[in-house]
Amino acid sequence: PAQRPRFKRSEISTHTSKAAGGIWIIHNNGVYDITDFVDVHPGGERILLAAGRSIDPFWSVFTIHQTPETKELLEQYRIGDVEPPRDAIEAAENAAAEERDRDALKDLFKFDPKRDPELITHAAYPCNAEAPARALVDAPITPTEKFFVRNHLPVPDIDTTTYRLAVQGPGIPDGVALSLEDLKKLPKKTVTVTLQCAGNRRKDMHDVKPTKGLQWSQGAISTATWGGVLLRDVLKQAGYNTPPSTTTTLPDDDQAISHVQFHGTEGYGASIPFHKAISAQGDVLLAYEMNGEPLPADHGAPIRVVVPGYVAARSVKWVDRITLSDEESWSHWQRKDYKGFSPSTEMPCEEDYENAKSIQELPVQSAVLLPAKGQNVTLTEQGEMVCKGYAVSGGGREVVRVDVSADGGRTWTTATLKPAATDARPGRQWAWSHWDAKIPVSSTIKGKEVEIVCKAVDDSYNSQPEKMEGIWNMRGVLSTAWHRVTVKVAG
Ligand code: MTE
Ligand code: MO
């Protein structure tokens, strides 16, 4: 086969603009002239960050590019290959260039805040860190600095004085732009809400059969008391004719609106059904406070959406645009992610994604926080095993029972439930319950390994499946099988 032209890294690095002879990038070992692509790049000018460099480190951040379609598209622009270094000097030059590329990447994260060292970091750029079990146990409200962080992109830099929230769509003919002051003039509302990532407990599913995604243990979940304004009130303020709280049906002209789309400043996006947004019982919040303090950068300052009872992926941080629409958000994370598949769908294709329903309300979930896996457990004087954990369901459904076992699920003890939100109304149980149980065990288990198991039941009598096998999906979402923790009993 004819050899493709080869280019030295030093030459490639000069191709950073049209004027400099075109915009070139490197992917793996290929060289691509993307000059004509820049104007049509869906992500806009951001692609220029990779001009004259390898795009691969950027794709490790902007992971939505890691698809066969993107690679095929890029291949059309290939002009050659990277020339291997000829000697030690060139190799050293290349290494220095790669170092500069990594620095450029870190520069994207210069607005990421300092974080609590106790958070368990699964990925640093962007930050994906779970709450340590010992911060969740006994704490109905998670301390803000221990609240799990799930960022898909760098934390954006937002000037609160010029910040505007655009609200647009049918029913809001002219569209409006609200300042923080405008928003804070609306009635303030606080709601205690548990946010749980769709991938919480993915590791438990992965251990049964490999999945794709961050290997979260049981800490991609946290609870805060959020302060802000109701989305419903904001829509009204923007001119949308909100039905009074006493009506349950929507006005006829709302047929043009079935979804509310949220756009985050840094590029993330998602949507929720309109009925959830507009319902007086939905409690969807635009929050500017978390646990009584101004919302921190990691959790969406100055404004984030909080969608109680829904998967946390819809609680869009750094929200700057709200659009009423007859369609779901076109964001990658609404259409190409956060969907469940059959255990036999090993490689979901475009069509699978189109046909699958977006995850919104979450199923019932529970986990053991104490004792920890592998811990050496001392029994109480009465010969009981002390266990603690959390349980939560979606859609405002209340957890009505948690069963805990210290013999792998043969016999069960009913746990005591402590709901985090004691003032929650029926059908609006938006926060988890902590549970604890003292399981009477036989003294013969001393010195042996035992398996602690927990499972929860919600007020619709939905319960968790026993095994992961039947709910396994390649993305490892909705990992809700009985939580099992093996410990050793002190002798
Ligand atoms: N909003 C924006 N703008 N960007 C994001 O990356 N991640 C979503 C959601 N909202 C995300 C976002 C996901 S998947 C989760 S689980 C939650 O935010 C995490 O919220 P937290 O970081 O406050 O815990
Ligand atoms: Mo998530």
From TrEMBL:
Top EC group: oxidoreductase
This enzyme's EC code(s): 1.7.1.3, 1.8.3.1
Keywords associated with the record: Heme, Iron, Metal-binding, Mitochondrion, Molybdenum, Oxidoreductase
Domain Cytochrome b5 heme-binding residues, every copy: 4-83
GO BP field: sulfur compound metabolic process
Protein name per UniProt: Nitrate reductase [NADPH]
Annotated compartments: Mitochondrion intermembrane space
Segment forming the signal sequence: none
Reactions catalysed according to its record: nitrite + NADP(+) + H2O = nitrate + NADPH + H(+)
Involved pathway(s): Energy metabolism; sulfur metabolism; Sulfur metabolism
GO CC, one annotated term: mitochondrial intermembrane space
Keyword Oxidoreductase applies: yes
